[in-house]
Amino acid sequence: MNFGGVGEIAAGMRGDTAKQLGIRTDYDRRIGTFAQSHPAVVYPCYPKEIRLGDAVAKDVYCYTNPNQPVNVPWPYGTGFDTMGWFSHCFWKPYNITVDFTDMNLYIARGEAA
């Protein structure tokens, strides 16, 4: 589970994922950024909804990277077959608890205690 990500996006996704899900993508707005410390070109995309359990964001600003392959080995990628990821802006309205003993993730809306 990735809790990081910098910038203004709520999530990011591979280009194939955005295409398969029919997510509106603005290919006229090329953005130069970095992914795993390497230059990358991404495009704004606007999914109708992103969700992880009860944690939901609707009509949010995201990125898609049409050139990002699946399962790029470390250190040039995560080494996982991921379709997308949630960025810091998605997590901000929630409190998150990670239980490494039972391998559970708890998400609750509200201010940090």
Structure in a nutshell:
The chain is mainly beta and 113 residues long. The chain has helices spanning 15-21, 88-91, and strands at residues 11-14, 24-25, 31-35, 38-46, 49-52, 55-58, 62-65, 84-86, 94-99, 104-109. Strands 1, 2, 3, 4, 7 and 8 form a 6-stranded mixed beta sheet that branches.
Topology, element by element:
Blueprint: E1 11-14, H1 15-21, E2 24-25, E3 31-35, E4 38-46, E5 49-52, E6 55-58, E7 62-65, E8 84-86, H2 88-91, E9 94-99, E10 104-109
Parallel strand pairs: 1-7
Antiparallel strand pairs: 1-8, 2-4, 3-4, 4-7, 5-6, 9-10
Explain what the structure shows.
With 113 residues, this protein is mostly beta strands. The chain has one domain. Helix content is 10%, strand content 42%. It has two helices and ten strands; from the N terminus they run βαβββββββαββ. The protein has helices spanning 15-21, 88-91; strands at residues 11-14, 24-25, 31-35, 38-46, 49-52, 55-58, 62-65, 84-86, 94-99, 104-109. The strands form three sheets. Strands 1, 2, 3, 4, 7 and 8 form a six-stranded mixed beta sheet that branches. Strand 9 and strand 10 form a beta hairpin. The chain is globular.
